[in-house]
UniProtKB/TrEMBL annotation:
Record has Transcription regulation as a keyword: no
SUPFAM superfamilies: P-loop containing nucleoside triphosphate hydrolases
UniProt organism field: Rhizobium loti (Mesorhizobium loti)
Keyword set includes Nucleotide-binding: yes
Location of the ABC transporter domain: 6-236
Gene Ontology CC terms: ATP-binding cassette (ABC) transporter complex
Protein name: ABC transporter ATP-binding protein
Amino acid sequence: MKSLPITIASVSKAYGSYVALDDVSLDIQAGEFLTLLGPSGSGKTTLLMALAGFVRPDSGKLLLADRDITRLAPNKRDIGIVFQNYALFPHMNVLANVEYPLALRKTPKADARQRALDALARVKLEGLAERNIAALSGGQRQRVALARAIVFEPRVMLMDEPLSALDRNLRETMQYEIRRLHDDLGITTIYVTHDQREALTMSDRVAVMNSGRIQQIDTPQQIYDRPSTRFVAQFMGEANILAPGSVRTIDGGDAFRETLMIRAESFHLDVKLVGRDGAALDGMLRAKAFRGENWLLTLALDDGQEVLVCIPSALAGGCAELAAGQRLTVYASAAKVHAIPGATS
Ligand SMILES: Nc1ncnc2c1ncn2[C@@H]1O[C@H](COP(=O)(O)OP(=O)(O)OP(=O)(O)O)[C@@H](O)[C@H]1O
């Protein structure tokens, strides 16, 4: 299957006075797995619907390779879709559901059957072709939806929160399977989720959206370790945003002048685990909690800022003896101290 690159060029969409997409531009490479991540209402679904052809942008262009698809009907776009609520046909069995897109495209019956069976094998449902939809579990239904989306060999796949109705264990299995399917078929995939961990686990790149704009587009590791805005830093897990002057260097003791992000799990209690070019924070231990795999300490800096410190239990010698109210210094290596570009405190 030959996949295609996608270009989203200055796309805007408003509903009345509400701006759902605000001049969004994005290049997605052929064969890439890109995730749109953001809070509810940030515009992820609107952008996906615009690509699918169900929402017409007010301005801007959508290209599949060199082809302008901005005004093309959804069924002419060569795009496979799996939505959380993209219902299967309950009165048809599994096989008929998967054959449906081929029937629409007037594929000869025997060919359609073989391709549907192949698609079912790819999603590990080969034994269930004759089963009624009503007699399937949630995970199996999503596999049928996946098979139906890939059966006509689309050049692009769009997925909108396809796993959000599944329980946690099944979700993790399906994350792995969707990624494997993507790697086998190499289809350019755009995946929408509001789950940070899911985005980090599955994607080649993540685009973080807020208020109809893309805040940052980068690899999962860059997004997590090097957020370009305060919003991205805080959306991606336990981030301490520290005002200029509140963190000092270990060597020399000078204060850092930038707004810094240091993640809770980047801290150590033992200075020997951190290079001399690292950072130190001095404060008073306000609270501590044992959480099984780690300890969570709350440190109050002298200027009143609170810092969350997460120490893995395996490295937490001494945590049990710490007492609220005592002075404490925590350390982070230079690689884990990130200055947020352009952030004011
Ligand atoms: N047809 C519509 N009419 C009016 N407002 C709409 C319409 N569709 C979406 N909106 C609004 O546009 C904004 C963006 O919605 P969108 O569904 O794209 O967000 P989202 O990031 O996908 O959120 P969620 O994670 O909750 O699905 C929301 O405030 C939503 O209420």
